[in-house]
Amino acid sequence: MKKIFADVIPFRGSHYDFGFKQGELLKDSILIKNRERQWKVRKPLFRIHMDETRQVFKRLAPFIWEELLGFRDALEWPMERVLLEFGGYRVNIPPSGCSIYVGNNYMIRNYDYHPKTYDGRFILYQPTDGGYAAMGPSQKITGRSDGLNEKGLAMGYTFMNRKRPGDGFVCYMIGRLILELCANTEEAVDLLKEIRHRGSFSYVLFDRKCQIPYIVETSPRRVEVRQGSLCTNHFEIMTEENRYKLDDSKKRLEIMKNNQLNDLDGNEAFRLLNDPDHGVFSKLYESWAGTIHTAAYFPQELKAWFVLGSGQEPYTLEFSKWLDGEDLPIEKMEGEVDTEIPFVNMEKADWYR
Fold first, then answer.
1. For the purposes of burial, counting CB atoms within 10 Å of the CB of 252, is it exposed (0-12), middle (13-18) or buried (19 or more)?
2. How many domains does the chain have?
3. Mean pLDDT, range 149-171, rounded to an integer
4. What interhelical angle do 62-75 and 15-26 show, nearest 10?
5. What domain range is 316 assigned to?
């Protein structure tokens, strides 16, 4: 078992100042050094179009562009490199897993991916220059893999396929845009219909009204909307987009369906996803699909539970109290995972293996 951690990073202020602060934290960090080693081995299968990217952000979320400028100034990098690392536009995404279960006033999500991609950062950000306050784990620093905003909108996504990627935003930047731009599920659905999508993902949206959540199936070719409370790694409407092998995805979905009949409370549903004995938690780290964290979001209470790996009581993050000005009682969350693969936020990663 490997002991891992995630830094808890709270910030209140402008997006530029937030970007600058994060750049200072990242400068000369092992995470950045691992990224540098990565690009020596893995060549990007895309191009950075700075003018187009700037125009897209300026139209949709100009304050996030200001955050990228803060990164540029703190790290003293050319803007092209900032966009390569943190821009979230036209980036290729490897396969991954993930399972999401929504119940009575909760959304629980297993984030299944590869340790060499994990930031190890949980962000609480309250902007002063536009956008809603939100909390959630970062992905590629500026993006969010899942999270909850001040309006009580919770979001998580699941990977579908790598077929024919297009020009557009990647999943984790879309997650960030949803949390900062949308007050409810209806606004999030409209956003997902409006923007261009680089890859194929399902986005699960749940807000404080606690009605049946929306699941938005997206690809570079089209977007479809349905309602449902369970999601793994295959489309229900756009079945032509699905991968050939779906056994694991359907198995995890069936396990959650069978337990849904029992009307689980939040704690029971969290254990269903986080306890490896139940069959939803994944140890397929070598295959880019091992469970790294389990997060639960409670839209009405504006709080989250969070566990790295499995086998421990979740950390509780009281977002509502933090929004009211209270300091967080924790600076770091720790856990254990059953893998020897390096985590890029804490140890040297060998990209040649």
1. buried
2. 1
3. 94
4. 30
5. 2-11+98-337
Whether 72 maps to a domain, the answer reads no
Q: Angle at CA 280, nearest 5°, toward 279 and 286? A: 95
CATH number at residue 247: 3.60.60.10
**What is residue 144's predicted lDDT score, i.e. its pLDDT?**
98
The amino acid present at 317, given as its one-letter code, is L
150: nearest Cα among 121, 106, 184: 184
- Identify the burial level of 239 via C-beta atoms within 10 angstroms of its C-beta, where 0-12 means exposed, 13-18 middle and 19 or more buried: exposed
Percent of the chain beyond pLDDT 70? 96
75 in a domain, yes or no? no
Which residues pair with residue 53 across a beta bridge? none
Model pLDDT for residues 171-198, shown as the tens digit of each residue: 999 999 999 999 999 999 999 999 999 9
What are the pLDDT digits (tens) for 262-318? 889 999 999 999 999 999 999 999 999 999 999 999 999 999 999 999 989 999 999
Average pLDDT value over all residues in the chain: 94
Per-residue pLDDT at 310: 96
**Burial (Cβ within 10 Å: 0-12, 13-18, ≥19) of residue 315:** buried
